[in-house]
Amino acid sequence: MKHALGHTLIAATLFAGTVAGGLPGSRAQAETPAATRQPATTQADELFWETFRSGDYAKIQASLDASTAAYLRNPTDPVTAAHVGWLHMWRLSERRRLEQAPATITDDAVLARKYFQKAVDLAPDDARYRGFLASAMLAEAQIDRDAALRDQGAAVMQQAVKDWPAFNLFTAGYVASNQPADSDGFRHALEQQWQNLEVCAHTTLDRRGADLDRLAGLMFKASAGSRDARACLNSPSAPHNEEGFLLNMGDMLTKSGDWRTAQKVYALATRSPDFTNWPYRDVLEQRMRDAQANVTALNAATSPGQKPATPMMLSSSHACMACHQK
Prior knowledge:
This protein has 326 residues and is mainly alpha-helical. It folds into two domains: 9-163, Alpha Horseshoe (Serine Threonine Protein Phosphatase 5, Tetratricopeptide repeat); 165-326, no CATH class. The chain is 56% helix and 0% strand. 51% of the residues are buried.
């Protein structure tokens, strides 16, 4: 479902304090956005989407240079600011692609926060930006072990969920999916995935998956034509939104120990009409086959800097691209 840009997006590792003058992005802090977009900005947009939709991690820097240059020409464009933020977060989130991630990659969390804050200030009514800002704040707080920033980020996330549940329930739960399976934070994050399904399908669901066959018939179509469609359905900006959402939710259920329900959730993704064209269908099919064994694998402890053999989607090389790559 998302976001994923992203939502998706925050594989940094990971509530209510507020900043002076209100939450980030409050109307009191809003700036005046650009009335028109410049040709160079449009060209940067095209490169951003070309890079993003192709999943070309190696071209992030080139796209980042173009989008940052466009931002410097016009720092009042919220879309450009958000694009810069997304590129920084994507590079951080999928750092598992790198043979050895440099320590300085953590700076991407700081820069993502800066540009998402700018996007929120310029477009305070866009709840997507608020959710991504919260994700960046939580990532930076985890890196710095900053409890005050963590509380601020959690407060911003809570507001983002209220502003747009269909979009930000996933975002909020996704960024907490690396927490210990027996923690309150993880249990709440998993519940948010169930709530997200219910919001999108306009129904209630048994938490053991007894009625998931019925949901398969809906496949979130209840949201078609509504504001929630872009958060719940596959779209040009997230061509495999549904499949990526279900992959993550299946991972979370597996980690919780409920691997049988996880298999049912994974199986929902195979019913998507876009499943056969999904670059990560093999990942999901293997997850479905290995679900019972993965209860242990997804809960395995790792040393600092060690890559888990079987990572949660949040810590994987497809943390963003599971939803966004064509």
